[in-house]
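Revision sheet: structure tokens.
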Amino acid sequence: MPQAWQALTQALIEHCKSGVTLSRSSFAQALAFLPENDGAVAQWEQLQKVHSFTCLTLTQCAEILQQILVFMGKVQMWINLFGLTVCNIKESYDETQNNLMTLLNAHPLNNRQHSAATEEDYREAFAHRNDKKYISTGHKYLDAIIHGYYLGGVSILAAYSGTGKTWFGIDAAVHALQQGLRVGFFSTEMSLDSMHERLLQYLLNCDYQTLHKVVPEKALHLALDLICSWSKDKSTGPHFNLYCPSSNLDRISIEMIEQEVTTAAASERGFNFIVVDYLQDVENNTCKDAEVYKRYLNSMRRLVSLCIKFKCAILLLAQMRPSDHSYSSGQPSLYEIAEGSYVVNSAQAVMFLRNCKVQSRGKGKGQEQETDDKLETFLQVVKNRAGSALSTSKLKCTRSAGSHFTFVPENSY
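Predicted:
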């Protein structure tokens, strides 16, 4: 734990042990009994500065946003590392979230209900991203929003069935390999042969039919050799391990993921980046008889713990429940991801990949034709601890024949 937060964290633990319901006011009263030179008091006063503002410049606003996000991150850290779920810290956490949203709504750069982020906004955000703590997604506009996949946290990509979440995971894995990173891919749905086939499609940038009927056999062998070379044990360079069920009896479980990640780290071949496809289908033997949302929550917390312990990043794919607005342009609810919002509370970033109906109007001879609805794919970031001012922006998504993703700002074309 960072030394700057040890005193305040210890004070929080002692306060929780007293059995008092934790809130901002009750914790402040407890701190009032400590000496003025106590480190916890100084740290608490530092946090309070984020709420004592009247007239602010844009620079000050940005600093305050960052401080609030840091505070929210510390509260979540206290939950994860010290098991403080038995204490009621929801009031304090929700209050901070509400303060953040109030400030975001008041921030001139975030008043974009009728104006999407401009190219300059993305360029500026990308230039200021902290790439030392993140793995690049391989897409500059997405990096500008979430900075990349956080080393020490879980990012969630949620999508309805058939939208392309597995292809998104493959795209992320290949981009990580291209950066020389060690990657693990845990798939609950496909066999190893099926995953190899998808990787071949991606590497050769062709669809299934072309892969089997048009692509020369020599090209297939070269691409497959590349995939196999990634899996070979070597001291440096990219490394790719695929874990897929070979039968209905061989399921991917959270216990298996923990074991594989721990074993890889012990052999000094630890993963930098891990893709898990997908949350709802990962077995949890510890909580197999628990309610669904509790099982998901336990799996999520264990994945976060892996990230913290081994300093890696995880992209967790999740299948959203179909709803009446599956194809609407509105923002889906976080409850559609995992039977509740509990899972997303621990996530570093949450993204929705969705097909939306968009009205298009063509013109005929001397008159306008009737409006037709067409499906377009969008990626929307709905939670982002990186604190980017672009966190509410949507990116328009296109995919090539081999499912290479391309993201551009919503208003680009």
